[in-house]
């Protein structure tokens, strides 16, 4: 999960520099070489224990979990909101905040560093308290984007709010990804692919709407408004998950099982069997 924000810290500035020096063809050759290097590194990764083989029907059966779709919705909405703003951040920085075009890559580096920090925070705290981590983070992201609309007229305020947007927005990613895989039970393969698809679907939809907002009377603040709308809507599936988790926790705790905010389906089944 840290690869995407890390790419914004290192890859985006390096790619921009390489593109200026060699042209876009040289940059594509460099990316091809890096991809080959990544494939070679993959050969040396340690093997993981083999999971039980699950049929296609079993994978599809996992999609019946309502909580899984809530996690996927949260994944798509949060990234759709953050990346809708980030995709069109340069006009906001240069035309509204007055930041020189040459300094924009530095802001992008700050965004990437903040996103990397958010990913680490989500991984650290989201394992034990997923809802207590994601719900405040989603609310803070929406507030940062809303504040960006009136306060982005100065460089300091714009950069600070973009930093906060990345920090809180990317905190949610590792948590909802882990929840989606957990909800899938013994059929995580299709769910892992759907999680990635949810992120990219959200990014595509958010960026498309943000582009229309940018071309409207809203101007350079339009993408931030779309981003605030998407991230605000992220609260709906997260709150629904928290509600479902609270009901599940109550059932499990009555059987003196370890407290967990979102128990695995097997735990709930075992508790019910014991009670019966």
Helical segment count? 12
Element string (H = helix, E = strand): HHHHHHHHHHHH
The major β-sheet equals: none
Beta fraction of the residues?
under 5%
Report the mean per-residue pLDDT as an integer: 84
CA distance, first residue to last residue: 41 Å
Topology:
Blueprint (H helix, E strand, L loop, with lengths): L2 H40 L13 H6 L4 H22 L1 H8 L7 H22 L4 H22 L3 H15 L2 H12 L4 H28 L6 H12 L1 H19 L11 H11 L1
Helix pairs in contact: 1-5, 3-6, 3-8, 3-9, 3-10, 3-11, 5-7, 5-8, 6-7, 6-8, 6-10, 6-11, 8-9, 9-10
What keyword list fits this structure?
mainly alpha; 276 residues; disordered C terminus
What does the model show?
By secondary structure, the chain is mainly α. It contains twelve helices and no strands. Helix 6 (130-151) packs antiparallel against helix 10. It starts with a helix and ends with a helix.
A few lines on this structure:
This protein has 276 residues and is mainly alpha-helical.
